User: What shape does this take?
Amino acid sequence: MPSDKNNKIPFNEDNYTHNIERDNERKLDRRGFMKTLAGAAGVFAVSSLPWGAVAAKELMGLGEKEYPHKKITDVSKLAVGDSLEFKFPGEHDDAIIIRLNENKYVAYQNACTHLRCPVFWVKEQNQMVCPCHHGFFDAETGAPTAGPPRRPLPEIQVKVDNGAIYAVRVKRYEA
Amino acid sequence: MKRSYVGVAVLAFILFLNIIFTQYMVHQFFYENYVNTLIFCGLNIVLFPIALFAYKKMKNVKA
Assistant: This one.
């Protein structure tokens, strides 16, 4: 025992009975429990920071990135009502382009927003279908219409230039 | 020595709110409603000083 405690009687110590020594007797009393709860609030606060940071980044449009334009195909090779699979923006990012009418092309990243199965264009049903769990997507907007998926397919902006179709960028979904 | 358990109740309620806000924040993030994500993130952060304040206020309260 340090001697300076003798000069202040009763000296300040963090237990109930200063003359009986018990280890950790204050560990899980009311005050210790409240301390734990306040600490838990701190953990929650710190752990929500990255979510806020990523959300802010998305809002500021930093996720909106323009990739080098990539030629998908020639207009003459894609008949009205047909679809074609391609890769954009990366080598392993499957995408699909659908020619809805003479001048309207839509393109989506075709990994299903449920469990990332490839989504196909079914001409006869006039919609996109995910065969894994029967998810259906509207071809005009990419929005899910039935089945497990709840989020739309990411849309790819396309540009027609000189009889060729180019993929320009991946659009962010706006709620 | 009687003690007041109001502080424990208050802090437990704050923890309850924390859980709710975190749940909302994560869900709104994946629904891509980023403004809502930021709102709940802010609420979660604001709860921490409130919890500290509640702890400091209540730790010595006797019934």
